[in-house]
């Protein structure tokens, strides 16, 4: 399923933050938060390999992964995107923030942009998120964004759904 044209990656502009495609020149700053299938990059090379997989998933229509950019500094502060379920008209929304930006509202603003894009551009019928039961900041963020807990799994995860 191809939701987007790859040469026309959808960038989303907000007042304080924007969502844009991650470039090779961003990878040095993103090693700390580069993950694929729950495996974290340890080097720039591994981050590049992960980003190549993410880009292929996008070309295949299986996900969309944005860098969250501070509009004032033009620095990437985190990432977010839809990573599963697009073939069923739904999207698992995930996010990661660079630690030096914790508690500054960047993730909330980035997620609001992604939610709006998912509902109004992608026409998703369901947006959901999963996190560890111990990840109190993520749980608080999801609840502030009007996600409601819908299920706890045996492997220590909680699933939330946008209402």
TrEMBL record:
Gene Ontology cellular-component annotations: cytoplasm
Keywords, alphabetical: Plasmid, Transferase
Matching Gene3D superfamilies: 3.40.630.30
InterPro entries listed in its UniProt record: Acyl_CoA_acyltransferase, GNAT_dom, N-acetyltransferase
Domain N-acetyltransferase: 17-163
Pfam families according to UniProt: Acetyltransf_3
GO MF annotation, one: protein-N-terminal-alanine acetyltransferase activity
Protein name: GNAT family N-acetyltransferase
